[in-house]
Amino acid sequence: MMWGNGYGMGFMWWVWPVGLVLVLGVVLLTIVTIRVFSNGSGSRAEGPQGNVPSGPVSTGRSAARLLLDERFARGELDAEEYRHRVQVLGE
């Protein structure tokens, strides 16, 4: 027994591909949105070197001195080289 216009479900072959594309589009949009907001929010609050402020801080130290302090704290500079560079900076 035939229902409707006699074509059965054959005329709706396009529903599955369109539905699949819509679902994939929503998933892709969600992933892109999460990446934009998670990566963008953390990097905007930081300076050009990640966690180094780009200008003078309320302590009165310059950005160069702060960078020097961080390099010394990470062990990239020994004490003698650190003192020499602080002296060169004039601080």
UniProtKB/TrEMBL annotation:
Transmembrane segments: 12-34
Chain segments carrying region Disordered: 39-59
Keywords linked to the UniProt accession: Membrane, Transmembrane, Transmembrane helix
Name of the protein in its database record: SHOCT domain-containing protein
Organism: Cryobacterium breve
